[in-house]
Protein backbone atom coordinates (compact mmCIF):
# COMPACT_ATOMS: atom_id res chain seq x y z
CA UNK A 1 0.00 0.00 0.00
CA UNK A 2 1.27 3.47 -0.90
CA UNK A 3 1.56 5.78 2.10
CA UNK A 4 1.69 9.48 1.26
CA UNK A 5 2.29 10.83 4.78
CA UNK A 6 4.76 8.80 6.85
CA UNK A 7 5.42 9.70 10.46
CA UNK A 8 8.93 10.83 9.56
CA UNK A 9 10.13 12.18 6.25
CA UNK A 10 12.00 9.79 3.93
CA UNK A 11 15.27 10.25 2.04
CA UNK A 12 14.93 11.59 -1.48
CA UNK A 13 16.35 8.52 -3.22
CA UNK A 14 14.01 6.19 -1.35
CA UNK A 15 11.04 8.26 -2.50
CA UNK A 16 12.28 8.25 -6.09
CA UNK A 17 12.73 4.47 -5.94
CA UNK A 18 9.11 4.17 -4.82
CA UNK A 19 7.97 6.29 -7.76
CA UNK A 20 10.00 4.19 -10.19
CA UNK A 21 8.46 1.03 -8.77
CA UNK A 22 4.95 2.44 -9.17
CA UNK A 23 5.68 3.45 -12.76
CA UNK A 24 6.64 -0.11 -13.68
CA UNK A 25 2.93 -1.03 -13.59
CA UNK A 26 2.10 1.59 -16.23
CA UNK A 27 1.79 1.24 -19.98
CA UNK A 28 5.01 2.13 -21.83
CA UNK A 29 5.03 5.84 -22.67
CA UNK A 30 8.03 5.50 -25.00
CA UNK A 31 9.01 2.92 -27.57
CA UNK A 32 6.17 3.08 -30.09
CA UNK A 33 4.01 0.31 -28.60
CA UNK A 34 1.18 2.35 -27.06
CA UNK A 35 -1.30 3.64 -29.67
CA UNK A 36 -3.22 6.04 -27.42
CA UNK A 37 -2.80 8.59 -24.61
CA UNK A 38 0.86 9.51 -25.26
CA UNK A 39 2.76 11.18 -28.09
CA UNK A 40 6.40 10.26 -28.50
CA UNK A 41 8.74 11.62 -31.20
CA UNK A 42 11.60 9.36 -30.02
CA UNK A 43 14.06 12.24 -29.73
CA UNK A 44 17.08 11.48 -27.52
CA UNK A 45 17.51 14.08 -24.80
CA UNK A 46 14.09 15.71 -25.25
CA UNK A 47 12.76 14.37 -21.93
CA UNK A 48 15.79 15.71 -20.09
CA UNK A 49 15.35 19.14 -21.72
CA UNK A 50 11.65 19.41 -20.96
CA UNK A 51 12.10 18.14 -17.41
CA UNK A 52 14.74 20.82 -16.83
CA UNK A 53 12.56 23.52 -18.40
CA UNK A 54 9.61 22.41 -16.29
CA UNK A 55 11.72 22.63 -13.15
CA UNK A 56 12.84 26.18 -13.97
CA UNK A 57 9.26 27.46 -14.08
CA UNK A 58 7.40 24.95 -11.90
CA UNK A 59 7.01 27.41 -9.02
CA UNK A 60 5.86 30.26 -11.24
CA UNK A 61 2.14 31.04 -10.83
CA UNK A 62 0.18 31.94 -13.95
CA UNK A 63 -2.50 33.60 -11.84
CA UNK A 64 -0.87 37.02 -12.28
CA UNK A 65 1.16 37.63 -15.46
CA UNK A 66 2.28 41.03 -14.18
CA UNK A 67 4.11 39.30 -11.34
CA UNK A 68 5.63 36.66 -13.61
CA UNK A 69 6.28 38.22 -17.03
CA UNK A 70 8.41 35.22 -18.07
CA UNK A 71 5.30 33.09 -18.25
CA UNK A 72 3.38 35.75 -20.16
CA UNK A 73 6.20 35.94 -22.71
CA UNK A 74 6.25 32.17 -23.21
CA UNK A 75 2.45 31.95 -23.49
CA UNK A 76 2.36 34.72 -26.09
CA UNK A 77 5.10 32.98 -28.05
CA UNK A 78 3.22 29.67 -27.99
CA UNK A 79 -0.01 31.35 -29.08
CA UNK A 80 1.82 33.08 -31.90
CA UNK A 81 3.33 29.82 -33.11
CA UNK A 82 -0.04 28.07 -33.02
CA UNK A 83 -1.71 30.97 -34.85
CA UNK A 84 0.90 30.83 -37.60
CA UNK A 85 0.38 27.08 -37.93
CA UNK A 86 -3.35 27.55 -38.32
CA UNK A 87 -3.61 30.35 -40.85
CA UNK A 88 -3.55 33.39 -38.58
CA UNK A 89 -1.27 36.32 -37.91
CA UNK A 90 0.20 39.19 -39.97
CA UNK A 91 -0.14 38.78 -43.72
CA UNK A 92 -3.07 36.34 -43.49
CA UNK A 93 -6.82 36.71 -43.78
CA UNK A 94 -6.94 36.51 -39.98
CA UNK A 95 -4.30 39.04 -38.89
CA UNK A 96 -5.83 39.76 -35.50
CA UNK A 97 -5.87 36.22 -34.06
CA UNK A 98 -5.48 36.05 -30.28
CA UNK A 99 -5.40 33.08 -27.94
CA UNK A 100 -4.74 31.51 -24.58
CA UNK A 101 -2.74 28.56 -23.31
CA UNK A 102 -4.86 26.02 -21.44
CA UNK A 103 -4.23 22.78 -19.59
CA UNK A 104 -5.49 20.55 -22.41
CA UNK A 105 -8.03 20.00 -25.14
CA UNK A 106 -10.97 19.58 -22.80
CA UNK A 107 -10.36 22.95 -21.18
CA UNK A 108 -9.92 24.55 -24.60
CA UNK A 109 -13.25 23.17 -25.77
CA UNK A 110 -15.07 24.14 -22.57
CA UNK A 111 -13.75 27.70 -22.94
CA UNK A 112 -14.75 27.88 -26.61
CA UNK A 113 -18.28 26.85 -25.63
CA UNK A 114 -18.32 29.29 -22.69
CA UNK A 115 -17.22 32.17 -24.90
CA UNK A 116 -19.99 31.38 -27.39
CA UNK A 117 -22.58 31.14 -24.62
CA UNK A 118 -21.56 34.30 -22.82
CA UNK A 119 -21.45 36.26 -26.07
CA UNK A 120 -25.21 35.65 -26.43
CA UNK A 121 -26.89 36.75 -23.20
CA UNK A 122 -30.08 37.16 -25.23
CA UNK A 123 -30.37 33.35 -25.58
CA UNK A 124 -32.04 31.90 -22.49
CA UNK A 125 -31.43 28.24 -23.34
CA UNK A 126 -28.23 28.10 -25.44
CA UNK A 127 -27.40 25.08 -27.59
CA UNK A 128 -24.47 23.88 -29.66
CA UNK A 129 -24.48 21.74 -32.81
CA UNK A 130 -21.80 19.09 -33.35
CA UNK A 131 -21.41 15.86 -35.34
CA UNK A 132 -21.83 12.70 -33.26
CA UNK A 133 -18.12 12.08 -33.93
CA UNK A 134 -17.16 15.30 -32.13
CA UNK A 135 -15.06 14.83 -29.02
CA UNK A 136 -16.92 13.96 -25.82
CA UNK A 137 -15.49 17.13 -24.26
CA UNK A 138 -18.22 19.09 -26.05
CA UNK A 139 -20.81 17.08 -24.13
CA UNK A 140 -18.85 17.73 -20.96
CA UNK A 141 -18.83 21.45 -21.74
CA UNK A 142 -22.59 21.63 -22.21
CA UNK A 143 -23.10 19.55 -19.07
CA UNK A 144 -20.93 21.86 -16.98
CA UNK A 145 -22.31 25.05 -18.51
CA UNK A 146 -26.00 24.17 -18.39
CA UNK A 147 -26.43 24.04 -22.16
CA UNK A 148 -27.92 21.60 -24.67
CA UNK A 149 -26.03 19.49 -27.20
CA UNK A 150 -27.55 18.78 -30.62
CA UNK A 151 -25.63 15.90 -32.17
CA UNK A 152 -25.88 15.46 -35.95
CA UNK A 153 -25.49 11.94 -37.39
CA UNK A 154 -22.64 11.04 -39.72
CA UNK A 155 -22.59 8.77 -42.74
CA UNK A 156 -21.52 5.23 -41.75
CA UNK A 157 -19.40 5.12 -44.91
CA UNK A 158 -17.66 8.53 -44.86
CA UNK A 159 -17.97 9.19 -41.11
CA UNK A 160 -18.71 12.84 -41.96
CA UNK A 161 -21.92 14.77 -41.29
CA UNK A 162 -24.17 16.12 -43.99
CA UNK A 163 -23.88 19.90 -44.13
CA UNK A 164 -27.63 20.01 -44.81
CA UNK A 165 -28.19 18.17 -41.52
CA UNK A 166 -25.95 20.65 -39.71
CA UNK A 167 -27.84 23.58 -41.21
CA UNK A 168 -31.16 22.00 -40.25
CA UNK A 169 -29.99 21.52 -36.66
CA UNK A 170 -29.23 25.22 -36.17
CA UNK A 171 -32.00 27.01 -34.28
CA UNK A 172 -32.38 30.54 -32.88
CA UNK A 173 -30.94 29.16 -29.62
CA UNK A 174 -27.77 27.82 -31.27
CA UNK A 175 -24.70 29.76 -30.15
CA UNK A 176 -21.96 27.53 -31.60
CA UNK A 177 -21.43 25.00 -34.37
CA UNK A 178 -18.36 22.80 -34.11
CA UNK A 179 -16.49 20.35 -36.31
CA UNK A 180 -13.31 18.29 -36.07
CA UNK A 181 -10.00 18.42 -37.91
CA UNK A 182 -9.61 15.53 -37.56
CA UNK A 183 -12.03 13.57 -35.39
CA UNK A 184 -10.25 11.56 -32.72
CA UNK A 185 -12.03 8.24 -33.18
CA UNK A 186 -11.44 7.74 -36.90
CA UNK A 187 -9.03 10.48 -38.00
CA UNK A 188 -11.52 12.06 -40.42
CA UNK A 189 -11.56 15.79 -41.24
CA UNK A 190 -15.10 17.16 -41.23
CA UNK A 191 -16.37 19.47 -44.01
CA UNK A 192 -15.07 22.57 -42.25
CA UNK A 193 -15.53 25.13 -45.03
CA UNK A 194 -19.12 24.11 -45.68
CA UNK A 195 -19.92 23.94 -41.96
CA UNK A 196 -18.41 27.36 -41.31
CA UNK A 197 -20.43 28.78 -44.21
CA UNK A 198 -23.80 27.59 -42.86
CA UNK A 199 -22.83 28.78 -39.36
CA UNK A 200 -21.88 32.22 -40.68
CA UNK A 201 -25.13 32.43 -42.65
CA UNK A 202 -27.01 31.80 -39.41
CA UNK A 203 -24.90 34.33 -37.51
CA UNK A 204 -23.39 31.64 -35.29
CA UNK A 205 -19.80 31.04 -34.23
CA UNK A 206 -17.92 28.07 -35.73
CA UNK A 207 -15.27 26.29 -33.70
CA UNK A 208 -12.79 23.84 -35.25
CA UNK A 209 -11.61 21.22 -32.80
CA UNK A 210 -8.08 20.58 -34.04
CA UNK A 211 -6.89 19.51 -30.59
CA UNK A 212 -5.92 16.04 -31.74
CA UNK A 213 -4.13 16.57 -35.04
CA UNK A 214 -4.20 20.26 -35.79
CA UNK A 215 -0.51 20.76 -35.17
CA UNK A 216 0.52 18.12 -37.69
CA UNK A 217 -2.12 18.64 -40.42
CA UNK A 218 -0.31 21.70 -41.85
CA UNK A 219 2.88 19.64 -42.16
CA UNK A 220 1.04 16.77 -43.81
CA UNK A 221 -0.37 19.24 -46.33
CA UNK A 222 3.15 20.54 -47.02
CA UNK A 223 4.11 16.93 -47.74
CA UNK A 224 1.33 16.62 -50.30
CA UNK A 225 -1.48 15.09 -48.29
CA UNK A 226 -4.88 15.75 -49.85
CA UNK A 227 -6.54 17.48 -46.90
CA UNK A 228 -9.26 20.13 -47.05
CA UNK A 229 -8.91 23.65 -45.71
CA UNK A 230 -9.75 23.70 -42.02
CA UNK A 231 -8.06 26.69 -40.37
CA UNK A 232 -8.47 30.47 -40.25
CA UNK A 233 -8.06 30.60 -44.02
CA UNK A 234 -11.68 29.40 -44.04
CA UNK A 235 -14.14 32.32 -43.76
CA UNK A 236 -16.54 31.78 -40.89
CA UNK A 237 -14.13 29.86 -38.65
CA UNK A 238 -14.17 31.90 -35.46
CA UNK A 239 -12.04 29.76 -33.12
CA UNK A 240 -9.67 26.79 -33.23
CA UNK A 241 -8.18 24.62 -30.50
CA UNK A 242 -4.91 22.70 -30.85
CA UNK A 243 -3.06 20.65 -28.24
CA UNK A 244 0.68 21.11 -27.90
CA UNK A 245 0.95 17.95 -25.79
CA UNK A 246 -0.16 15.87 -28.76
CA UNK A 247 1.61 16.28 -32.10
CA UNK A 248 3.73 19.21 -30.97
CA UNK A 249 5.19 16.50 -28.69
CA UNK A 250 5.25 18.71 -25.59
CA UNK A 251 4.77 17.12 -22.16
CA UNK A 252 1.24 16.84 -20.83
CA UNK A 253 -0.58 19.97 -19.78
CA UNK A 254 -0.66 22.43 -22.72
CA UNK A 255 -3.25 23.30 -25.35
CA UNK A 256 -3.97 26.54 -27.20
CA UNK A 257 -7.38 28.09 -27.84
CA UNK A 258 -7.33 30.65 -30.66
CA UNK A 259 -10.00 33.22 -31.60
CA UNK A 260 -10.11 35.15 -34.86
CA UNK A 261 -10.04 38.43 -32.94
CA UNK A 262 -10.03 39.83 -29.41
CA UNK A 263 -13.75 40.63 -29.38
CA UNK A 264 -14.52 36.93 -29.86
CA UNK A 265 -12.18 35.99 -27.02
CA UNK A 266 -13.48 38.55 -24.51
CA UNK A 267 -16.40 36.42 -23.18
CA UNK A 268 -13.94 33.60 -22.48
CA UNK A 269 -12.53 35.56 -19.52
CA UNK A 270 -13.88 35.45 -16.00
CA UNK A 271 -13.55 38.51 -13.79
CA UNK A 272 -14.87 39.03 -10.26
CA UNK A 273 -14.26 41.86 -7.84
CA UNK A 274 -17.32 41.70 -5.58
CA UNK A 275 -15.50 40.42 -2.51
CA UNK A 276 -12.88 41.82 -0.09
CA UNK A 277 -9.92 40.05 -1.74
CA UNK A 278 -8.03 40.67 -4.96
CA UNK A 279 -10.02 41.12 -8.17
CA UNK A 280 -9.93 37.75 -9.89
CA UNK A 281 -9.33 37.74 -13.64
CA UNK A 282 -8.75 34.43 -15.41
CA UNK A 283 -8.54 33.50 -19.09
CA UNK A 284 -9.14 29.84 -18.26
CA UNK A 285 -10.78 27.53 -15.76
CA UNK A 286 -7.87 27.38 -13.34
CA UNK A 287 -6.71 30.37 -11.35
CA UNK A 288 -3.38 29.18 -10.02
CA UNK A 289 -1.42 27.54 -12.83
CA UNK A 290 2.10 26.17 -12.67
CA UNK A 291 4.44 27.60 -15.27
CA UNK A 292 6.14 24.21 -15.60
CA UNK A 293 4.06 22.78 -18.47
CA UNK A 294 4.22 26.07 -20.39
CA UNK A 295 8.00 26.27 -20.08
CA UNK A 296 8.28 22.62 -21.12
CA UNK A 297 6.13 23.26 -24.20
CA UNK A 298 8.17 26.34 -25.08
CA UNK A 299 11.38 24.33 -24.79
CA UNK A 300 9.93 21.56 -26.95
CA UNK A 301 9.00 23.85 -29.82
CA UNK A 302 12.34 25.64 -29.64
CA UNK A 303 14.20 22.33 -29.65
CA UNK A 304 12.35 20.55 -32.47
CA UNK A 305 11.80 23.51 -34.77
CA UNK A 306 9.77 23.74 -37.96
CA UNK A 307 12.06 21.42 -39.92
CA UNK A 308 11.92 18.84 -37.13
CA UNK A 309 8.12 18.81 -37.13
CA UNK A 310 8.09 18.42 -40.89
CA UNK A 311 10.44 15.44 -40.57
CA UNK A 312 8.27 13.84 -37.87
CA UNK A 313 5.16 14.35 -40.00
CA UNK A 314 6.85 12.59 -42.91
CA UNK A 315 7.97 9.69 -40.70
CA UNK A 316 4.47 9.40 -39.25
CA UNK A 317 2.84 9.58 -42.67
CA UNK A 318 4.91 6.65 -43.93
CA UNK A 319 4.17 4.69 -40.76
CA UNK A 320 0.43 5.29 -41.20
CA UNK A 321 0.54 4.00 -44.78
CA UNK A 322 2.43 0.87 -43.78
CA UNK A 323 0.15 0.19 -40.81
CA UNK A 324 -2.90 0.60 -43.04
CA UNK A 325 -1.40 -1.87 -45.50
CA UNK A 326 -0.80 -4.31 -42.63
CA UNK A 327 -4.48 -4.06 -41.66
CA UNK A 328 -5.66 -4.59 -45.23
CA UNK A 329 -3.44 -7.66 -45.53
CA UNK A 330 -5.42 -9.48 -42.82
CA UNK A 331 -8.57 -11.24 -44.00
CA UNK A 332 -11.66 -9.91 -42.29
CA UNK A 333 -10.18 -6.58 -41.16
CA UNK A 334 -11.36 -3.36 -42.80
CA UNK A 335 -10.18 0.23 -42.49
CA UNK A 336 -12.88 2.52 -41.15
CA UNK A 337 -11.62 5.47 -43.23
CA UNK A 338 -8.79 6.24 -45.63
CA UNK A 339 -5.72 6.91 -43.47
CA UNK A 340 -5.11 10.51 -44.55
CA UNK A 341 -4.12 11.89 -41.14
CA UNK A 342 -2.32 10.22 -38.21
CA UNK A 343 -4.95 7.62 -37.33
CA UNK A 344 -5.37 4.04 -38.44
CA UNK A 345 -8.78 2.76 -37.39
CA UNK A 346 -10.14 -0.63 -38.37
CA UNK A 347 -12.98 -3.01 -37.72
CA UNK A 348 -13.58 -6.73 -38.11
CA UNK A 349 -14.65 -9.84 -36.22
CA UNK A 350 -13.79 -10.53 -32.57
CA UNK A 351 -12.26 -7.09 -32.17
CA UNK A 352 -12.10 -7.11 -28.40
CA UNK A 353 -10.36 -10.50 -28.37
CA UNK A 354 -8.02 -9.18 -31.06
CA UNK A 355 -7.13 -6.21 -28.86
CA UNK A 356 -6.29 -8.59 -26.00
CA UNK A 357 -4.13 -10.68 -28.31
CA UNK A 358 -2.25 -7.58 -29.45
CA UNK A 359 -1.67 -6.61 -25.83
CA UNK A 360 -0.28 -10.09 -25.18
CA UNK A 361 2.17 -9.42 -28.04
CA UNK A 362 3.28 -6.11 -26.54
CA UNK A 363 1.14 -3.65 -28.51
CA UNK A 364 -1.46 -1.62 -26.64
CA UNK A 365 -4.37 -0.37 -28.74
CA UNK A 366 -7.64 1.41 -28.02
CA UNK A 367 -10.88 -0.52 -28.59
CA UNK A 368 -13.92 1.65 -29.39
CA UNK A 369 -17.56 0.64 -28.88
CA UNK A 370 -20.09 0.55 -31.70
CA UNK A 371 -22.33 3.58 -32.18
CA UNK A 372 -25.57 3.15 -34.12
CA UNK A 373 -24.59 1.95 -37.59
CA UNK A 374 -20.90 2.60 -36.91
CA UNK A 375 -19.27 -0.68 -35.89
CA UNK A 376 -16.88 -1.24 -33.01
CA UNK A 377 -13.30 -0.56 -33.99
CA UNK A 378 -9.69 -0.48 -32.90
CA UNK A 379 -8.03 2.93 -32.89
CA UNK A 380 -4.31 3.49 -33.44
CA UNK A 381 -2.86 6.91 -32.76
CA UNK A 382 0.35 6.88 -34.81
CA UNK A 383 3.39 8.91 -33.77
CA UNK A 384 6.94 9.16 -35.04
CA UNK A 385 8.14 6.58 -32.50
CA UNK A 386 5.91 3.91 -34.07
CA UNK A 387 7.78 3.86 -37.38
CA UNK A 388 10.61 1.46 -36.38
CA UNK A 389 8.05 -1.07 -35.10
CA UNK A 390 5.64 -1.24 -38.04
CA UNK A 391 6.87 -4.56 -39.40
CA UNK A 392 6.81 -6.07 -35.93
CA UNK A 393 3.26 -4.79 -35.45
CA UNK A 394 2.20 -6.21 -38.82
CA UNK A 395 3.42 -9.66 -37.80
CA UNK A 396 1.76 -9.32 -34.39
CA UNK A 397 -1.52 -8.24 -36.00
CA UNK A 398 -1.60 -11.25 -38.34
CA UNK A 399 -0.80 -13.59 -35.47
CA UNK A 400 -3.31 -11.91 -33.14
CA UNK A 401 -6.06 -12.09 -35.76
CA UNK A 402 -5.46 -15.81 -36.23
CA UNK A 403 -5.58 -16.34 -32.47
CA UNK A 404 -8.77 -14.26 -32.18
CA UNK A 405 -10.39 -16.32 -34.93
CA UNK A 406 -9.44 -19.55 -33.17
CA UNK A 407 -10.77 -18.20 -29.88
CA UNK A 408 -14.04 -16.97 -31.34
CA UNK A 409 -16.21 -14.20 -29.92
CA UNK A 410 -16.67 -13.70 -26.21
CA UNK A 411 -19.68 -15.72 -25.09
CA UNK A 412 -21.24 -13.83 -22.21
CA UNK A 413 -23.91 -15.67 -20.21
CA UNK A 414 -27.36 -14.92 -21.55
CA UNK A 415 -28.57 -13.87 -18.12
CA UNK A 416 -25.75 -11.32 -17.82
CA UNK A 417 -26.55 -9.83 -21.23
CA UNK A 418 -30.24 -9.73 -20.40
CA UNK A 419 -29.51 -8.02 -17.10
CA UNK A 420 -27.26 -5.36 -18.61
CA UNK A 421 -29.53 -4.55 -21.53
CA UNK A 422 -32.61 -4.27 -19.34
CA UNK A 423 -31.12 -2.47 -16.34
CA UNK A 424 -32.27 0.90 -15.17
CA UNK A 425 -29.06 2.96 -14.75
CA UNK A 426 -30.39 4.23 -11.43
CA UNK A 427 -30.37 0.66 -10.13
CA UNK A 428 -26.62 0.35 -10.66
CA UNK A 429 -25.46 0.99 -7.13
CA UNK A 430 -21.86 0.67 -6.07
CA UNK A 431 -22.67 -2.72 -4.53
CA UNK A 432 -24.23 -4.08 -7.74
CA UNK A 433 -21.30 -2.91 -9.84
CA UNK A 434 -18.81 -4.30 -7.31
CA UNK A 435 -20.43 -7.72 -7.64
CA UNK A 436 -20.40 -7.52 -11.43
CA UNK A 437 -16.79 -6.37 -11.43
CA UNK A 438 -15.76 -9.25 -9.19
CA UNK A 439 -17.52 -11.72 -11.52
CA UNK A 440 -15.47 -10.32 -14.41
CA UNK A 441 -12.20 -10.42 -12.47
CA UNK A 442 -12.15 -6.69 -11.74
CA UNK A 443 -11.98 -6.61 -7.99
CA UNK A 444 -11.47 -2.89 -7.55
CA UNK A 445 -9.79 -3.66 -4.23
CA UNK A 446 -6.27 -2.68 -5.19
CA UNK A 447 -5.54 -5.92 -7.00
CA UNK A 448 -3.98 -5.61 -10.46
CA UNK A 449 -6.36 -5.17 -13.37
CA UNK A 450 -6.53 -8.20 -15.67
CA UNK A 451 -4.49 -8.16 -18.87
CA UNK A 452 -7.40 -9.55 -20.89
CA UNK A 453 -10.54 -7.43 -20.91
CA UNK A 454 -12.43 -8.69 -23.97
CA UNK A 455 -15.30 -9.87 -21.78
CA UNK A 456 -15.54 -6.44 -20.15
CA UNK A 457 -15.49 -4.63 -23.48
CA UNK A 458 -18.08 -7.02 -24.92
CA UNK A 459 -20.34 -6.33 -21.96
CA UNK A 460 -19.89 -2.58 -22.28
CA UNK A 461 -20.52 -2.73 -26.01
CA UNK A 462 -23.78 -4.62 -25.44
CA UNK A 463 -25.00 -2.22 -22.77
CA UNK A 464 -27.19 0.76 -23.67
CA UNK A 465 -25.18 3.97 -23.46
CA UNK A 466 -26.74 5.22 -20.17
CA UNK A 467 -26.05 1.85 -18.54
CA UNK A 468 -22.48 1.82 -19.88
CA UNK A 469 -21.87 5.28 -18.52
CA UNK A 470 -23.23 4.35 -15.10
CA UNK A 471 -21.22 1.13 -15.03
CA UNK A 472 -18.00 2.99 -15.71
CA UNK A 473 -18.78 5.74 -13.21
CA UNK A 474 -19.36 3.22 -10.45
CA UNK A 475 -16.35 1.14 -11.47
CA UNK A 476 -14.08 4.19 -11.43
CA UNK A 477 -15.47 4.89 -7.98
CA UNK A 478 -14.36 1.40 -6.94
CA UNK A 479 -10.85 2.12 -8.16
CA UNK A 480 -10.55 5.54 -6.62
CA UNK A 481 -10.55 4.77 -2.92
CA UNK A 482 -8.32 6.44 -0.32
CA UNK A 483 -5.27 4.46 0.77
CA UNK A 484 -5.09 4.37 4.56
CA UNK A 485 -2.08 3.02 6.38
From TrEMBL:
Q: Which UniProt keywords apply?
A: Lyase, Pyridoxal phosphate
Q: GO:BP terms for this protein?
A: carboxylic acid metabolic process
Cofactor(s), by name: pyridoxal 5'-phosphate
**Nucleotide-binding keyword on record:** no
Checking InterPro entries in the record gives: GrpII_AminoAcid_Decarb, PyrdxlP-dep_de-COase, PyrdxlP-dep_Trfase, PyrdxlP-dep_Trfase_major, PyrdxlP-dep_Trfase_small
For whether the record's keyword set contains Lyase, the answer is: yes
Q: Which GO terms describe its molecular function?
A: aromatic-L-amino-acid decarboxylase activity; pyridoxal phosphate binding
Where are the N6-(pyridoxal phosphate)lysine residues found in this chain?
246
Q: Which family does it belong to?
A: Belongs to the group II decarboxylase family. Sphingosine-1-phosphate lyase subfamily.
Q: What is this protein called?
A: Glutamate or tyrosine decarboxylase
